[in-house]
Amino acid sequence: MQQNKSVTEFIFLGLTQDPIKQKMVFVIALIFYTGTMVGNLLIIVTIKFSRALGSPMYFFLFYLSFADTCFSTSTAPRLIVDAVSAKKVISYNECMMQVFVLHLFGGMEIFVLILMAFDRYVAICKPLRYPTIMRRQVCTTLIILAWTGSFIHSITQIFLALKLPFCGPNLIDHYCCDLQPLLQLACMDTYVINLLLVSNSGVICLSGFVLLMISYFIILRSLRNHSAEGRKKALSTCTSHIFVVIIFFGPTIFMYTRPPTTFSMDKMVAVFYTIGTPFLNPLIYTLRNAEVKNAMKKLWIIQITSDIK
Fold this sequence. Notes:
- Belongs to the G-protein coupled receptor 1 family.
- With 309 residues, the protein is mostly helical.
- Helices cover 74% and strands 3% of the residues.
């Protein structure tokens, strides 16, 4: 990568400078990251090997769990290691790579959530045409488009980051590399860069949230024409999805749709959507979904039975 700077490395200030609080950060982050990996990998394996979970909804859930796993991995391991490190150093190239990966899988999560809402809309509002509209070839094409959109978004973020000259200091008041904290260190007027950041990340987050809320509003309105049993099942699924949308988009909209100002709560908000949300997603999609839980049980029974034999 071309380095338009004199700074060759950055130092994170992390979430706290207090040694006792750092140990607490280490334990909590380790628990959340372990839970995220176990939960999402269980969903990935279950959907991959269970014939009962072959519908488009679980096809998209597979990619949401994959995106969650990678999204959390882009920040959590370094946060865990840095919590017990004397000096939290990251090289310039590693920092740029973290920006790329963070936005690649963050963007993927946004697009997959939109696809999941579209899938529910077709299933509930156009049930007779559902098998035709949401056939496997269409779902695969939609996922490819989601990956393409995420890649373009991430490349845009890297392009903006590489435009920033860093002359010193190199202390990042954060626990990960992202454009917002990097703008504070750039030795140039960052007004235009921040405007481009808001028009890219901010517009994606805000428009995605509005689109999802409108789609779920239409879905919930259409449930009035369904049977009590069908309404209950659809409402349970949509409620889970809406909760995921709110807990993910709320913090991201707060971070990416504002002027280049820093608030004391920024780091905790970032922790919530980079580590907290990927941890909560598998809990929401398994504890509230009988099909996923039953498929997991069957796979465990088959595995245990084969081990005994």
